[in-house]
């Protein structure tokens, strides 16, 4: 657990998830961008919906701090990184 700017406890996943924000691709400028999910996720109906809608893409099973967070659906570029808070 970490703390946000107001001192509230937050989990690692909360630190890197931005809800409701559509990032622009730095390569082509498109806002048609999906979050990349790394690791071995548990498949669900919600995950299928997000995959089908282009809101989520699977990145692979190897997780590292250098993995990109977002994938552009228009040009297939990948971008974004985790900023360490400690």
How much helix, percentage-wise, in residues?
10-25%
What's the N-to-C terminus distance? 11 Å
Query: What is the typical, i.e. mean, pLDDT?
Result: 80
Count helical runs.
2
Poorly predicted residue ranges: 1-5, 8-17
Q: Outline, from the CA principal axes?
A: globular
Give the radius of gyration.
Answer: 14 Å
SS elements, strand count: 6
Judged by helices, strands and strand pairing, the structural class is alpha+beta
* Percent strand: 15-25%
Sheet with most strands: strand arrangement: 4-3-5-6
The H-and-E topology, N to C, reads as EEHEHEEE
What does the main sheet amount to?
4 strands, mixed
Write a structural description.
It is a single chain. The protein is an alpha+beta fold and 86 residues long. The chain has helices spanning 12-16, 45-52, and strands at residues 2-3, 9-10, 33-38, 56-60, 70-72, 78-79. Strand 5 and strand 6 (78-79) form a beta hairpin. The termini are close together. Residues 1-5 and 8-17 have low confidence and may be disordered.
Summarize this entry quickly.
The protein is an alpha+beta fold.
Based on the model shown, name its key terms.
single chain, about 90 residues, alpha+beta, four-stranded mixed β-sheet, 6 strands, disordered N terminus
Reconstruct the topology from this structure.
Layout: E1 2-3, E2 9-10, H1 12-16, E3 33-38, H2 45-52, E4 56-60, E5 70-72, E6 78-79
């Amino acid at each position: 657990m970490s703390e946000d700017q107001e001192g509230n406890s937050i989990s690692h996943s909360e630190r890197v998830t931005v809800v409701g924000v559509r990032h622009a691709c730095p390569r082509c400028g498109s806002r048609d961008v999906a979050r990349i999910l790394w690791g071995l996720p548990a498949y669900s109906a919600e995950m299928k919906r997000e995959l089908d809608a282009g809101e989520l893409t699977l990145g692979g099973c190897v997780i590292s701090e250098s993995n990109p967070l977002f994938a552009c659906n228009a040009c297939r570029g990948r971008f974004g990184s985790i900023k360490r808070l400690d």
